[in-house]
């Protein structure tokens, strides 16, 4: 860490690449990509707004200006802005170590304070909507890519990365289960690495859908590593973008009810103009992670023990309680009452 006279000139893109290279061995792939994504906004600000060619010029005032710009540019909530600024602070601290910015400059990177519970996301797919959607898929799109994928996603609460990582031979129909494997060298890492590897039991009706998908509708292709992905497209293994956009599209109410709860004209709605690319603009559509949150809450409301849900969904019980369990206090107390009635 250096004073102004000791700084060595360095342009922002070079510093960011040095930072990302240093963090590559300690961050999971998804986290590493998230850091790159957040710092890309900083690089854009340096180039297009503040015209910073040398990080030696960075000051506390400029970092404050960046914070204001980033909130406005991204229309960010406090939670999202905090995530962005926390990453920037770590980057600036790294820059201090390589003599790129002045000593203790990271202290000028201010993140918004969150009120209690503000970092607790409450968006999820409600179980009634999930059941109605699955019934629609069962009737009109049976054993299609979207039916098979969403059925497994809802009934297992898998993460996006996990569901696209599955190969055909990871699914065992005779034992009614699927195995998750961490294979980062072949573009299918699990969020928790080797700790995320596990066997997941499946109900027979889920296996029936997967069996028919594989037998009749799955494109018979391999990925770039010669593996047979369970959820394939004609181009190979379904990408994260494909899974995400499919979930956004499927969870629009107009997709499975034919009606819009927001009073929009469906034919003219921006969320239906390009169904795969703009579906997230529907106020009611949700992400794969929101499906996961809804699935976990559904299992908990059905009196499945938290330890069982924790193991099945690969999430610690403390994290489960804080970020996934969306049961109301009334639901929880009535469930407890059921356990205590006969004591």
From TrEMBL:
Residue stretches making up the Tyr recombinase domain: 120-337
Keyword Membrane: no
Highest taxon of source: Archaea
GO molecular function: DNA binding
CDD domains recorded: DNA_BRE_C
Annotated Pfam families: Phage_int_SAM_1 (PF02899), Phage_integrase (PF00589)
Signal peptide: none
Occurrences of domain Core-binding (CB) (ranges): 10-96
Sorted UniProt keywords: DNA integration, DNA recombination, DNA-binding
InterPro entries: CB, DNA_brk_join_enz, Integrase-like_cat_sf, Integrase_catalytic, Integrase_recombinase_N, Integrase_SAM-like_N, Tyrosine_recombinase_XerCD
GO BP annotations listed: DNA integration; DNA recombination
PANTHER family: INTEGRASE_RECOMBINASE PROTEIN MJ0367-RELATED (PTHR30349:SF41), PHAGE INTEGRASE-RELATED (PTHR30349)
Protein name as annotated: Site-specific recombinase XerD
Taxonomic lineage from the root: Archaea, Methanobacteriati, Methanobacteriota, Stenosarchaea group, Halobacteria
